[in-house]
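Hey Z.,

So I finally got round to the adenosine-5'-triphosphate thing we talked about over coffee. Here's the setup:
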Amino acid sequence: MEDIRLTGVRKTYGKEVAVENMDLLVEPGDFLTILGPSGCGKTTTLRLIAGLEEPDRGEIHLADRLVFSREQGVIVPPENRNLGLIFQSYALWPHMTVRRNITLGLEHARLPREKIDRRLQQALEKVQLEELRDRYPSELSGGQQQRVAVARLIAMAPTILLMDEPLSNLDAMLRVDMRGELRRLHKDLEATTVYVTHDQVEALTLSDTVVVMDKAVVQQQASPYDIYHRPASLFVAEFVGNPRINRLDGMVRGGNGETTVDFGDVSVPFDANLNVRNGSVVATLRPEAIQLSKTEKEGWLKVRIDAVQPTGSETVIKTSSDRLKLTVLQPGFFQMATDEPLWLRFEAESLNFFDSETGKNLAA
Ligand SMILES: Nc1ncnc2c1ncn2[C@@H]1O[C@H](COP(=O)(O)OP(=O)(O)OP(=O)(O)O)[C@@H](O)[C@H]1O
Ligand SMILES: [Mg+2]
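And the result:
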C-alpha cells in the first residue's frame, strides 16, 4: 500500500489561488475525504495528485517515488502513476460496449489476453453487470454506468484511487447503495483513496480521515469523530452537521475564584487557562446535545418554540429565549404546538469555544 504526500504545494490559475501551501499526508491504505464548499480547491488537489495539473511549487510523492518537483525538474505523467480515477461524469466511451470500456486500459497496459479476460469476468461479477456486458453506455441507467466505471477500476487494480464527487448524479437511494460499494472497492483493492465531496454526510460515513478545506486552505485534517466533536475552527463546526450547529456569543467573567462564560440567559463554568482576547468568545453546541422538558425544571432555560420540523426519524425544534436562539434535535416524531413553552439544558462539556476574531478553537 502506498502513501500520498504533498509538501508546500501551491496552484494558481492567473490571479486565482486554487490551492495554497498544502501539506497533506494520506496514510497507506487510508480512505481520506476532502470536504469543502464549492470552489475551495478540492478538484484541483485531486488533479494535482493525478498529474493532470502541475503545481506552481511544492513536491508530490506517491509512496517513495517523487512524482513532481519543479525544483528538481521531476514531472511523472498521469499514466505512469498507477492511479484509478473516477470523476463526476464516469467518462465511459459511448461507442464502446461495457466489456470494451472495462478492458481498454488493460489492453493499453499490454496484459496477456487470458489475464484480461479473467479480470473482466471478476470485475463484472463484483458489480453484477455480467448480463449487460455487450450493451453500450447509452443503453444503461445512470447507476449502471457508474457501476461500469467501478468495474473498470476493479479490473485495473490501481494502488491509488482518486474519486471526485462520483455519486453526485445519482438519486438518494442509489447514493446510499453506491457508498457501500465504493467503501468495499477501497477495501478489496487495498488502495490508498482520496475522495472529494461537498456532502458532509458522505464524508463522515465513508472516511477514515477527513480534510476540510476552505478558500484554498486546509482547515483541519482529522478523524470523522474529531471533525464533528472537536472542530479546529468555527468554519469547520458550522460546515459539518445538519441541522447546523448552534452558535452562542459569550463574555468571560471572573471573580470569587470562579470563571464563567455568560451567554445572556445562561452561563456555564469556563476554563480560566484558555487564552481569551477582550473577554469575548464564541461557543458552539450541537442540536442533539440539548435536553428538553415539557414541564418546568429547576435551573433549566425556558424557551419559546418558533418551529417544529419532523423528518420522520427525528424532529428539528427551533426555539428562542430573550437572548438566545437554539436549535434542538430530538429523536422520533415530536409533536407540540408552537405556543407551548419548553425547558432546555445542556452540559458545559458539550460546548466548543472559539476565538471571536480568528475563529480558532481555543482548546486546540
Ligand atoms: N482551469 C481553471 N482555470 C481557471 N480557474 C480555475 C480552473 N480550475 C479551477 N479554477 C478555480 O480554482 C478554484 C478551485 O477550483 P476547484 O475546481 O478545485 O474547486 P472545487 O472545490 O472542486 O469546487 P466544486 O465543489 O464546485 O467542484 C476555483 O475558484 C476555480 O474557479
Ligand atoms: Mg470540484
